[in-house]
Amino acid sequence: MKRFLIPLLAALTLLAGTTLSTAFAADAPAQATAVEVPAAAAAVAAVPRLDSGDTAWMLTSTMLVILMTIPGLALFYGGLARTKNMLSVLAQVFVIFALITLLWAVYGYSLTFGGDGRFFAGFGRLFLDGIGPDTLSTALPTIPEYVFIAFQATFAAITVALTVGSFAERMRFAAVLLFAVLWFTFSYLPIAHMVWGGGLLATHGALDFAGGTVVHINAGVAGLVGAWVLGRRLGYGREAFKPHSLTLTMVGASLLWVGWFGFNAGSAGAANGAAALAFINTILATSAATLSWIGGEALYKGKASMLGAASGAVAGLVAVTPAAGFVGPIGSVVIGLLAGLACLWGVGGLKKLLGADDAFDVFGVHGVGGILGALLTGVFAAPELGGTQGADFAIGHQLWVQAQSVLLTVVWSGVVAFLAYRLTDALLGLRVREDEERQGLDIASHGESAYHY
Amino acid sequence: MKLIIAIIKPFKLDEVREALAAAGVPGLTVTEVKGFGRQKGHTELYRGAEYVVDLLPKVKIEVAVEDAAVERAVEALETAARTGKVGDGKIFVADLEQAVRIRTGETGGDAL
After folding, report:
1. Residues of A in Cβ contact (< 8 Å) with B49
2. Nearest CA in chain A to B51
3. The dihedral of CA A260, A261, A264, A268: what is its sign?
4. pLDDT, tens only, A34-44
5. Deepest of A49, A71, A313, B101, by most Cβ within 10 A of its Cβ?
6. Which fold has domain A48-446?
């Protein structure tokens, strides 16, 4: 499969390039109402004033998203790892969080939201220059800009941290961090700018409420590419790679679910009806997906599993992320039911087809779920299906717009990830030595042991 | 002296302890082990990855006894550990050349 990678990506780039350049050639009128998160509705006639309810909610949402990464994602992944690699997974997620949030303040925010370029914003807000405690956000005028910056920092951090799940248990720690910086800079920032910062995709009317493309498809693809480039773990397919603590995985999944209310409902940018809709959708899609995943399991394999329930929940959360503020509650139930089944296939049949050792199924859940969710958003945002869009909404057209943004994200993320891995390999070497991998990364990379019994 | 080594099902441990005590065997050593004889294992499924687990948890008991007490001890053990279903385990009796009580330095039968 690996030798098809470069020609495949080249072909996709060509396809995406020709499709998109013809599609975007004519100037499309900015569909400001269709573009949501995190920007509230565009023209605010009155002078912007700080709203303490909105600010309190956005501060809370930010903290919830932090909890999603540390310790939510860390434990979700950690429990899936073998004991000898537990700390390495925790450390990779934890340190990526610290690293990316810092870089976000240094240049990430500026390049994403500090201007109007097509792919990158601008350099006007490096080191958060020109912003003070009383500065209100231009994107969300009722909250301080610092709150918006912090909120967005947590999104950048979790997106990068998600990739850890694919290349876990065999990548050098320094290489993880270098890859994180490269991919954050050249994949996350431009895609976030294109979808949310007023760049290419935003002006074309793509609907992505909380980051189905920016976060999940982006990370899923980058993870998959990493799994391919790094190769399979020693003993893959022969030795038993049993999760060492599904208890912790369940704890992680629960923290993800609860934290996701900050991720989705916080993406409304205010304490309002849109947040309320996103909130309730985050319950319903997740519950539905949990049930459809374990239902599928019970039918196919005979038993419903805890890992299945946890995975189903995450699948539902991923799929409803782009849809949360655009679809009605019943729409999100349907999205959840479909996501549970689609991602069950993603970690099973599709995974076998792809042939990569995506250690914790980042593509199977986040990639597949993100793609499905992005497309279904184009369907269920329709008013006749309970969605929030206007009477002139055309499902067919919107589906095409959604598909384009999915395609662009997949190709951009994949190509950048591939180059980032290769550059990191050239500079540092990606993989640990065989004996280190056998010993376990906790000892080999960190000089620690997770458990002493 | 003999060393009796028994592999039994874990939930039978308490019954076997009581039976050995009643048979006059004062002490024992217990280890948690894994193994299989003719008993089939089970399958575990984690997302798409299926694993056949045939190393099943068992408990190993070791007791050192005087020759005269062997038959009584083995019988007590056997009766207490039996369920009649496959996987009940095995008892081995091995020659024990020497035994020492560490606290007092006593050897041979006095050490048991």
Report:
1. 241
2. A240
3. negative
4. 344 454 444 44
5. A313
6. Ammonium transporter fold (1.10.3430)
